[in-house]
Write a structure and sequence with these properties.
By secondary structure, the chain is an alpha+beta fold. The protein is built from 13 helices and 11 strands.
């Protein structure tokens, strides 16, 4: 596979960025090619990153212009693309400020993070200008813009506080190769494969029993369990909620393939909001982890897995849950 050309990073001039923002479908957006220059990647690479993570980009974050929209915005698009190398074989994609923020979680580069902050600041300044001139805007449009501004500020704060680079994530994964120690926290951002490895590493530690407390389970949950050692008794405490809840036939198919596994189900009976993993309950080497996301969804967003050191209060909770009635899959 040929290496993709890396486009040199262009310093952010917010006034220039403001001139590259235009409105389509009632949303202020930027062209993919403009964002790519600031992010230091090719336009194709930018859009491929979006398509690989399509669930993260609803139409309010990113959409492809129709022929009619291209024609209507031709003067803007021509001005933006003037002097840029290469031609297009498809209509351009455009990204809202939320889409720009989300791109940083799929591209994982320092350049992308810094560029997105500058670009979004330009969006923000435009919103401030609009607010100062609110008498020119209909009330409903003004409230919509204010809501988007609030959501954007919250998203940017989360990105800046929790974003990790690929190299940092690699260092964290090395810790799993040597075993998880006390107080370690795993941060995962758009890395479902590495998230799977994290759960599998934890499950492998069980010698006698494994308890998983999670109201949202599915076939991926079962896939993780294939890494549990033979003879370990597995208890799933769950109300099996969600649109992709585990079905009885799916579980039967799984057990036909792994007949030696010992898996039972108990209800949480709406007692738990958080997720937990308990290794070797009742044993001296008992360990317990608090999980920010269901294992079947881990890696789709930033999340953490944290080892719990003070387990006394949690032991009583697990004991109570273990007395709950059996869950029957449908």
């Amino acid at each position: 596979m040929a290496k993709e050309e890396i486009i040199p990073f262009q310093p952010i001039d917010k006034e220039t960025v403001k001139n590259q923002i235009f409105e389509v479908r009632g949303i202020r957006v930027m062209l993919d090619s403009d964002i790519a220059v600031y992010f230091g990647v090719e336009t194709g690479a930018l859009n491929r990153s979006m398509k690989r993570n399509k669930k993260r980009f609803p139409e309010t974050f990113c959409f492809q212009l129709t022929d009619e929209e291209v024609s209507r915005c031709q003067s803007v698009i021509s001005m933006q693309t003037a002097g840029k190398k290469g031609g297009r074989t498809y209509n351009p994609y455009v990204y809202s400020e939320q889409g720009v923020a989300m791109l940083t979680s799929t591209l994982h580069t320092d350049v992308a993070i810094q560029a997105s902050i500058g670009i979004i600041e330009a969006f923000v300044e435009m919103s401030h200008y609009i607010r100062q001139n609110q008498q020119l805007l209909p009330y409903e449009e003004l409230k919509s813009l204010e809501l988007r501004q609030y959501q954007l500020s919250d998203r940017m704060q989360s990105i800046e506080e929790n974003m990790v680079t690929k190299s940092e994530l690699s260092d964290l994964m090395k810790l799993f190769d040597n075993g998880i120690t006390d107080d370690e926290i795993l941060i995962l951002n758009g890395e479902p494969f590495k998230a799977d490895l994290a759960y599998q590493k934890i499950y492998k530690k069980a010698k006698f029993n494994l308890i998983i407390v999670d109201d949202y389970i599915g076939t991926k949950t079962l896939q993780h369990l294939t890494h549990v050692k033979t003879g370990v008794e597995i208890t799933m405490i769950t109300d099996n909620k969600g649109y992709a809840a585990l079905k009885r036939q799916e579980f039967n198919d799984f057990m036909n393939e792994y007949p030696s596994m010992k898996i039972s189900f108990l209800k949480t009976a709406n007692m738990c909001h958080d997720r937990y993993i308990v290794i070797d309950y009742g044993q001296k080497n008992m360990k317990m982890y608090h999980c920010g996301a269901s294992s079947k969804d881990a890696g789709n967003k930033i999340t953490t897995i944290t080892e719990i050191n003070e387990m006394d209060i949690f032991k009583a909770m697990i004991k109570k849950l273990m007395m709950n009635p059996q869950l029957k899959l449908k």
